[in-house]
Amino acid sequence: MEELGKSILVLRIGLYSENHGFVQNMMYDSHYGDFFLMAPNDTASVPHWWDSAEPLWITAEKKGLRSALYWWDGCQVEIRGRKPTFCRKYKYVGYSWPTVNEDTQEALLTALQLFENNEIQLVQIYYEPVDFYGHKFGPNSIERKKAVKDIDSLLDLAQREMASRGLLNKVNMVVLSDHGMTSTDSRGLSVINLNQIIDMADIRYMVYYGATSMLLPHDGKLEK
């Protein structure tokens, strides 16, 4: 799953975490007293989480440019009073999406048709399998290598279609990745057991787990 708080928002907005407000995929806001859990959870559509910064598609819409987003989390939210012209909500590959490549191909071809007809000026398409299979099976796994080949084929199709439609000099195609990966060996990992360091009775909320964890202590327990 994309690391929403760390880097994908940087690509969407152009600001770092200390300015755009997202610091993880799961967060707690003490001001509003609620949790953010990234899509497909409903909390990902609560507007106050998104109001700290302005995504690219909102800026485009404010400038009179029509935008279409496919599977980009946040496009379903009204941000600063606006939404993209078209939004296909984020869909998690991990919940079974056997037609992800076919659906992405359909999105690419539809986007090019919209460009050709001058119906849209900005399109953003999120393709998750490379990230998902890398997290699940490792960056050098057969599954991830296949996902890389699949997106390579889709990008090749997009370029050939752009050429046949006379769009090569009219449409800029930008390919982005929000983070890299490296293989790990469980035998060499240093595991920190928080239960051996912290009295969990002092903790009000523990949000997220794994490589990082966010702890909110009860009142009066911070210094302890």
The number of helical elements comes to 6
Mean pLDDT: 86
Question: What would you call the shape?
Answer: globular
- By oligomeric state, this entry counts as single chain
Structural class: alpha/beta
Over the alpha carbons, how many angstroms does the gyration radius reach?
Answer: 20 Å
Helix-residue proportion: 25-40%
SS elements, strand count: 7
Which percent band covers the strand fraction? 5-15%
The major pleated sheet works out as: 3 strands, parallel
Report on this model:
One of its GO terms (biological process) is lipid catabolic process. This is glycerophosphocholine cholinephosphodiesterase. Pfam families: Phosphodiest (PF01663). Its cofactor is Zn(2+). GO terms for molecular function: glycerophosphocholine cholinephosphodiesterase activity; metal ion binding. The chain is α/β, with parallel strands linked by helices and 224 residues long. Helix content is 31%, strand content 12%. It is built from 6 helices and 7 strands; from the N terminus they run ααββαββαβααββ. The strands form 3 sheets. It has a 3-stranded parallel β-sheet with strand order 4-3-5, sandwiched between helices. β6 and β7 (214-217) form a beta hairpin. α4 packs parallel to α6 and α5 (129-137) runs antiparallel to α6 (142-164). The protein is globular and about 65 Å long. The model is unreliable at 1-6 (pLDDT under 50).
